[in-house]
Amino acid sequence: MPLTDHQLEDSDLLPFMNRPCRDIPDDNIRAGALIRHQLDPDSGWSRLIDNMRTFSQNENTIVNVAGIPIHISLNITRTPSLTANTFEKSKGRFSVPNCFLCNLDKKQRGVLTLDDRYLILANPGVTMPGDLTIASVGHEKQLIAGHFNDMIKLAEKLYGYSIFFNGALAGASSPHFHFQAGVKDSLIGEGQLDSILRGNKPGDVQLIKLTDRDDPAVFLIENFLRPCFICDTKKAESLAHFFDFFQDILFQSNKKISGIPNVPDFGQHIEPLDMIESEPRMNILLKYYPESGLYRAALFPKVYNRPSFYFNDGDNQIILGMAIKEALGHLITCRKGDYDKLTQRPELVRRAYADTSLRHDEILFISNLIKKF
Ligand SMILES: [Zn+2]
Q1: What per-residue confidence (pLDDT) applies to 81?
Q2: How far apart are the CA of 3 and the centre of ligand 1, in A?
Q3: How far is the CA of 176 from the centre of ligand 1 (A)?
Q4: Ion ligand 1 — residues with CB under 5 Å?
Q5: Is it true that domain 3-370 has CATH number 3.20.20.70?
């Protein structure tokens, strides 16, 4: 069954839309109705229904790590993506028969968007209720090249959501091109970033403005456990232009990722994509505010998605994958022992960020080049 055969029309979604929304549905309203459709005992998708039931039993703790609150959850609905080693082990070539986004479950449904080039789906690995996976309709590779403008358009259309992207060796769990989305500002780090940009400084956080002009305004956030670059602009074309510039610099920097234990050297052949690594490693958040016209992008440069203790044996192993949601302060564990270790020893959280983020000297190298933007 091709991906497009899983689509729902507005007429299918109507019973799942709140009454005032029915007259002028947009993609935000469709996405909300899609989740209700997929959770419905009659029409729904059993995997999502089961996972939402499990989700309600999650354990959650907020841990203070060097003055920065980090949310740690024990969430077994995320086990498949947490343990996915799609980009770690040699697995068959980039092919449709092996692809879970090309082979959706029978009752899995979605909403087409962006000229029918993407299908919005419920994300069964629930970090927060309402989470979405937005998959390209064709079996395209997980490369942001040629897709960043789509990310901007999705942020505009899904303005009630934060749009996420994970690069291939930075935490993506499928080689088939996809974004994720979550209800805007539901992850702890999203509010922290906004607060820092308003001038608040939790812990030893530093906010450094790298550009003279105010649009685009580019900032570096330091001492936040993981370095983060922010680009604020009211012009979509300025954001796309800055992103190209940033990607080029980060690519130059990533060439130095070499000889780190358990971390693949940059630029090797990536078996699941059947190509040489061609893009720098990063996690991206993009939000759009229709009331002010502001686009806010947060870019997290990465070395890899697995911290060093992931590779330990036996009791010393902690299963953790550092992708965009972790960059936004929400760490997901799927074993009680791992959850207990991380909640009791904040220094392990600090290490997980330090192991997987780009090193400080490289952040300075990138920052100095951004000053010339
Ligand atoms: Zn596919």
Answers
A1: 80
A2: 9
A3: 5
A4: 99, 101-102, 139, 176
A5: no
Type and span of the H or E element at 34:
helix 27-39
The 3-class SS string of 74-140 reads ECHHHHHHHHCCCCCCCCCCCCCCCCCCCCCCCCCCEEEECCCCEEEEECCCCCCCCCEEEEECCCC
Euclidean distance between CA atoms 280 and 123, whole angstroms: 25
pLDDT tens digits for range 51-81: 999 999 999 999 999 999 999 999 988 888 8
Pairing of the two strands 110-113 and 118-122? antiparallel
What does the domain layout of the chain look like in residue ranges? 3-370
Q: Where are the beta strands (DSSP E) in 184-236?
A: 206-209, 217-222, 228-233
What integer is the mean pLDDT of 98-104? 93
Spatial CA neighbour of 85 closest among 339, 291, 242, 272: 272
Model pLDDT, residue 71 = 98
Alpha helices in 222-334 (DSSP H): 236-254, 324-327
- 155 and 288 Cβ atoms separated by less than 8 Å: yes
Number of other residues whose CB lies within 10 A of the CB of residue 370: 18
Q: Tell me the mean pLDDT in the region 122-143.
A: 96
Three-state DSSP at 44 gives coil
Condensed to tens digits (0 to 9), the pLDDT of residues 110-124 reads 999 999 999 999 999
* Separation of CA 72 and ligand 1 centre (Å): 31
Residue 227 pairs in a beta bridge with none
Cα end-to-end span (Å), the chain: 47
How much distance in Å is there from the Cα of 143 to the middle of ligand 1?
A: 13
Give the Å distance between the CA of 139 and the centre of ligand 1.
4
